[in-house]
Amino acid sequence: MPQSSTASKKPNAAGQKALVIGAGIVGVNVALALQDKGYDVTIVDRGEPGMGASFGNAGGIAVTECAPIAMPGILSNVPGWLMDPLGPLSVRWRYLPKMLPWLARFLAASSKTRVEQIATELAALLHRAWDDYDPMIAKAGLADAVFKKEGALAVYRTDASRRKDDYGIDLRRRNGINIRDVSRSEIRDLEPDLAPIFACGVMEEDWGRVLDPYKIVMGLFKLFTDRGGKFETGEVTDFVYRDGKPRAAITTSGDNITFDTVVVACGAWSKTLSKRLGSPVPLDTERGYNTTVPYHGASLSRMVICADDSFVMTPMEMGIRVGGAVELGGLVASPNYDRAKALFAKGQQVLPKLNPEGGTEWMGFRPSMPDSKPVISKSPNHQNVFFAFGHGHLGLTLAATTGRLISDLMSGAETPVNMTPYRINRF
Ligand SMILES: Cc1cc2nc3c(=O)[nH]c(=O)nc-3n(C[C@H](O)[C@H](O)[C@H](O)COP(=O)(O)OP(=O)(O)OC[C@H]3O[C@@H](n4cnc5c(N)ncnc54)[C@H](O)[C@@H]3O)c2cc1C
Predict the structure, then answer these.
(1) pLDDT by residue (tens digit) across 339-355?
(2) I need a labelling partner for 67 at 20 to 30 A (CA). Which of 126, 204, 308, 319 fits?
(3) Where along the chain do the CATH 3.30.9.10 domains lie?
(4) Which atom of ligand 1 is nearest to the CA of 44?
(5) Across-strand partners of 236?
(6) What's the CATH number for 67-111+147-207+283-368?
(7) d(CA 201, CA 159)
(8) From ligand 1's centre to the CA of 228, what distance in Å?
(9) Ligand 1: residue whose CA is nearest its atom 16
(10) 369 CA → ligand 1 middle, Å
């Protein structure tokens, strides 16, 4: 039976050394939540905090996105992915053989029965996202500086393309997501700089955005260190075991970092360490691209999702970020920035005042499970090992919730949601 008192667990946690591997948005949120429970927390990262996928993402607090990436009928799109290297979803031919087991699971997750279940399980996390973020953001003094909660507008060029999303929209509504249809004229009123090419859209009222995803990681990281949290630099390569339990992380810096408990939060790179800890996992990466251009006259009031071409545009502090797409190409191949350029060109059709001058291109590695659900889990092998990765398109959105849930699992407190769907050994 789970225990019900969080407070009663604090004395047990006090003085316990928790090590979080990975200083992305997920690792930093986990570390803060563990501090709240009284753990003495160290974060280790092979580089500077916040420089992984958490650095340059689209900045959406996408609490409405409970529909998985693999939706019913996706199988018929596979030939197109293989033939169009600049399309919304593409596969790098060389990586294809390595990716096949992941792809097989991805396609298996697209059956209607699985999709219905996954959506409900993702919604259970997404419904918590704001409640879990807000207190931590307030403690860090970041609220107004980083978050905007004015919803997102998804736009469609034709009524027919909107109807293609009927199932996905209905699925989300059935899971308690607030989505409102908007007309052609309302789109013009909401976002006057958009080209007048959209027949209709939907407003996703509860969506939010951050003004700079990197700043939110660093603002929370500062709170972590201000509260006494320690940061070490080094790549964790393996673990030292004592009495059958992992007790220290071996790092490339030459030092071993001892711990009572450890959390693997290495984003797309979590697979190797999970395997070392006895939990092989079908994690891969969906690479994503974007271009951020300074404000040269184009303006948006909220995030805009261009549903027909599968990209988003986010108004940020430093300019407008245009991007998205999924490239299945692994962690090693160098970026193909033609993808970012192709997305930007589509952005210019939609937002004609967009000007490429001074733009910055970026590619990031989404940590993706084939069923679009994160791993938020205790190890089935070791009482003192936990996993927090695999958030795919939703890592920024679900980071605070992940932190809260991992801290409950570690301290033995009752979790507010059933954790079975997110366990590491579900495949
Ligand atoms: C183009 C794009 C757009 C996106 N848009 C959104 C969005 O709008 N909303 C949203 O919610 N999500 C979005 N995402 C997804 C989101 O960015 C990720 O899910 C999230 O950043 C993952 O965070 P993380 O902390 O798990 O991983 P990361 O930020 O990648 O951090 C992992 C960290 O682990 C470290 N590490 C790895 N291996 C080791 C090791 N062995 N030892 C020590 N350190 C190690 C790395 O150096 C890194 O700092 C987007 C992603 C992309 C690519």
Answers:
(1) 999 999 999 999 999 99
(2) 319
(3) 67-111+147-207+283-368
(4) 43
(5) 251
(6) 3.30.9.10
(7) 9
(8) 24
(9) 395
(10) 13
Ligand 1 pocket, 235 CB below 6 A? Answer: yes
* Cβ-based neighbour number of residue 15 at 10 Å: 10
Q: Which atom of ligand 1 is nearest to the CA of 395?
A: 19
**Both tokens of residue 87?**
């399309």
Atom of ligand 1 nearest to the CA of 289: 1
- Ligand 1 atom nearest the C-alpha of 396 is 11
Cβ–Cβ < 8 Å for 157, 200:
no
Cβ atoms of 356 and 200 closer than 8 Å: no
Tell me if 405 CB under 6 Å of ligand 1: no
Which pLDDT value is given to residue 255? 84
Q: How far is the CA of 243 from the centre of ligand 1 (A)?
A: 33
pLDDT of residue 287 exceeding 80: yes
Residue 374, ligand 1, Cβ within 6 A = no
Q: What mean pLDDT, rounded, does the chain reach?
A: 94
DSSP bridge partners of 232: 44
For ligand 1, whether the C-beta of 193 sits within 6 Å is no
DSSP string, 384-400: TEEEEE-BGGGHHHHHH
Strands in 144-242 per DSSP E: 147-148, 152-156, 179-183, 200-204, 208-210, 230-233, 236-242
CA 192–ligand 1 middle distance (angstroms): 33
Q: How many angstroms separate the CA atoms of 406 and 399, rounded?
A: 11
* pLDDT at residue 85 tops 80: no
Domain range 7-53+215-282+372-422, CATH architecture? 3-Layer(bba) Sandwich (3.50)
Sheet holding 375-378, edge to edge: 230-233, 40-45, 17-21, 261-264, 385-389, 375-378
The answer, yes or no, to whether any atom of ligand 1 lies below 6 A from the CB of 27, is yes
User: Could you report the per-residue pLDDT of 231-273, keeping only the tens digit for each?
Assistant: 999 999 999 999 999 999 999 988 899 999 999 999 999 999 9
β-pairing, 208-210 vs 60-61, is antiparallel
57 lines ligand 1 (CB under 6 A): yes
CA distance 388 to 391: 8
The CA 374 to ligand 1 mean position distance, Å, reads 12
